[in-house]
């Protein structure tokens, strides 16, 4: 079957109403798995974090991870959901090679959190309320590696390898209600929702929400309803793993489905895979219904019945919402929307806030983190937050510059020393002898020596070409190893030339 002709999005929304739904899977940052004591560390050697329980071996029995349950409830509360007073796990039965038990322990008709909402702000300030159908707990599957072939997928591969380390890692799946009336902004709404959800969950400190590592994944459900017609058939694009890809997947499905319908075809209810390079989707398998999964209550786990007191205790732990926090910091620091957005995109907002809390002015704190330290992170190929320097260290360097004990150039050397593991800023200053030369007599002697070596420059200065003093400043800075105050050196040069 040939690929349908893609339809421009503006043309799509002129004749169809896109209906959007999003399912986001979030791996929880617990030390152990959902139903056993195996570690959850990312990147371990394949099949080294497994046991009879997460491998589904006969006779093994699961035990619920309390921290995972609390994390799930906190996510539900942050999404304005009701926490169910009673809930059970169920077995979701289907075969897939990376699921060792041939069923997934999940929640079906009794999820932990239901009926919530989140207000999503778009770029132009428009707010869209996204309803949350449910948030339920389950376990992750293992991971397949398909070797050979051109796509990295099972089709065309020579063989497949299975790593069960991820099998059993706690997941929470957050399912939106249908999001209608988004029109041509459906792709933007999808991206904004996932972005805001990621920020919210990260603020709860229950997941690292690293989409590049698979700890946050999005399934995009989309259907097109002809204007004035009945709701169309939806497709589900699975495991979209970046914010940009979420937007592109929605846009492509809108264009593709309209092309199919315009050609007289029918939309098939199926799963689809997003192709990162081309920005397109391709067919996967026909989508199962709930009956196909043959859900039944998990016989080896007791129901979960959170008390009202427990829910209240968890509600009290919810932090300030990230978008509210950003607005507050923006006001306190007096920065623009673009500047605060740049801080967020650079991963510097938390670091700048902590540096300010340690006593640094916000402007200097922002400058250090988004300029010099961001360059160092790029050079060292690490995330900004993973640099081996604390916000308190940066605040101390800023303090030393403000007091005149360091120049900006010396301050960078101090930061380099901290990054290289040489100690605190004060220890680096002492070990490297980096303090500014503040002894006036020493400075005067250095200036006089430089003037004596360049009499032609002295004559230029006396003749009114004060910009020529820069050459003498450079000579003094070189002689003092960059530890002189350049401003004071310039003042002394002009004073000495006038005195002579």
**Mind describing the biggest β-sheet?**
9 strands, mixed
Number of helices: 16
Number of strands: 14
Shape: elongated
| Number of spatially distinct domains | 3
Strand content: 15-25%
- Name the structural class: alpha+beta
Helix content: 25-40%
Distance between the termini: 92 Å
Topology order in helix (H) and strand (E) letters:
HEHEEEEEEEEHEEHEEEHHHHHHHHHHHH
User: C-alpha Rg, in Å?
Assistant: 30 Å
Uncertain residue ranges: none
Spatial strand sequence of the major β-sheet:
2-5-6-9-1-10-11-12-13
Round the mean pLDDT to the nearest integer and report it: 89
Subunit structure: Heterotrimer of A, B and C subunits.
GO molecular function: asparaginyl-tRNA synthase (glutamine-hydrolyzing) activity; ATP binding; glutaminyl-tRNA synthase (glutamine-hydrolyzing) activity; transferase activity
EC number: 6.3.5.-
Keywords: ATP-binding, Ligase, Nucleotide-binding, Protein biosynthesis, Transferase
Task: Give your account of this protein's structure.
- This is Aspartyl/glutamyl-tRNA(Asn/Gln) amidotransferase subunit B.
- InterPro entries: Asn/Gln-tRNA_amidoTrfase_suB/E, Asn/Gln-tRNA_Trfase_suB/E_cat, Asn/Gln_amidotransferase, Asn/Gln_tRNA_amidoTrase-B-like, GatB, GatB_Yqey_C_2, Gln_synth/guanido_kin_cat_dom.
- It comes from Pseudonocardia endophytica.
- Residues 350-497 form the Asn/Gln amidotransferase domain.
- It is an enzyme of class 6 (ligase).
- This protein is of the alpha+beta class and 500 residues long.
- The protein has three domains: 9-311, no CATH class; 322-432, no CATH class; 440-499, Arc Repressor Mutant, subunit A, CATH 1.10.10.410.
- The chain is 39% helix and 19% strand.
- The chain contains 16 helices and 14 strands.
- The chain has helices at 9-15, 66-78, 186-204, 243-262, 308-315, 322-333, 337-345, 349-357, 362-380, 391-402, 408-419, 425-432, 440-453, 455-462, 469-479, 486-499, and strands spanning 16-27, 82-83, 90-93, 103-106, 113-121, 127-139, 143-147, 159-163, 170-176, 216-226, 235-240, 270-275, 280-286, 296-297.
- The chain has a nine-stranded mixed β-sheet. The chain has a three-stranded antiparallel β-sheet with strand order 4-3-14, with no helix packed on it.
- Strand 12 and strand 13 form a beta hairpin.
- Helix 13 (440-453) crosses helix 15.
- The longest helix is centred in the middle third of the chain and has 20 residues, at 243-262.
- The chain starts with 8 loop residues before the first helix and ends with a helix.
